[in-house]
Structure formats: structure tokens, C-alpha cells
Design a protein that fits this description.
Elements (H helix, E strand, L loop, with lengths): L3 H8 L3 E2 L4 E2 H4 L2 E7 L6 E6 L9 H13 L5 E6 L7 H4 L2 H7 L4
Parallel strand pairs: 4-5
Antiparallel strand pairs: 1-2, 3-4
Helix pairs in contact: 1-3
């Protein structure tokens, strides 16, 4: 059975095209839930973007959907959420903070 960790691992390949950093490392993926369905496991992914006016939002969401399917789930739904508001000081990994020049 596919679990949330497998989906999260697959999402590491998706990068924010402007920052060239994984959406997982940026902390844009807030939650991944796996649901058992008759046609196979389904992933519900809650994610945000670096800004509400992100010009590449459709591309990031489509790449997220495609990458999640490589984890073994049968279907995926990507939910774009704005709460909590993304803050790199709170959500990004230490490596991503260093790459962006964010210092606490």
C-alpha cells in the first residue's frame, strides 16, 4: 500500500521554477492524505504557493499531480490552500533557507 511518505518522496522532484528548489524543501506541501478506494489508493494533497499571484501556479500544480502519480497512487487531487500563509522562515527546510538566503 502506498503511504503519504512515498507520495512526499515523489514530490521532491517538483521544483518551484523561479527558485529552483523542491516544493517539499520549500515547505509548500502542507498535508498528504491517502484514501483507500475501489479503484486504488487516492492521494489528497494540500499545498500552497510562495505567493497568491504566482504566475506559474498551474504548472506547479500539474507537476505535483504528475509526480504524485509516480508514487503508485491511482488518483490524485491537489488542493491549493492559503492558510496558513507560507513563510519561508517557518515552513522551509534549513537547506532551502540557506539557498534562499533566509537567516533567522
Amino acid at each position: 500500500m502506498v503511504d503519504a511518505d512515498a507520495v512526499r518522496e515523489a514530490l521532491h522532484e517538483v521544483e518551484d521554477p523561479e527558485l529552483e528548489i523542491s516544493i517539499v524543501e520549500l515547505g509548500l506541501v502542507y498535508d498528504i492524505r491517502i484514501e483507500a478506494r475501489d479503484d486504488g489508493p487516492h492521494a489528497e494533497i494540500d499545498m500552497t504557493l510562495t505567493s497568491p499571484g504566482c504566475p506559474v501556479a498551474p504548472q506547479i500544480m500539474a507537476a505535483t499531480h504528475r509526480a504524485a502519480l509516480t508514487s503508485g497512487v491511482a488518483s490524485v487531487h491537489v488542493n491549493l490552500v492559503w492558510v496558513p500563509r507560507w513563510d519561508p522562515r517557518v515552513h522551509a527546510s534549513e537547506d532551502a533557507k540557506m539557498d534562499m538566503g533566509v537567516w533567522d
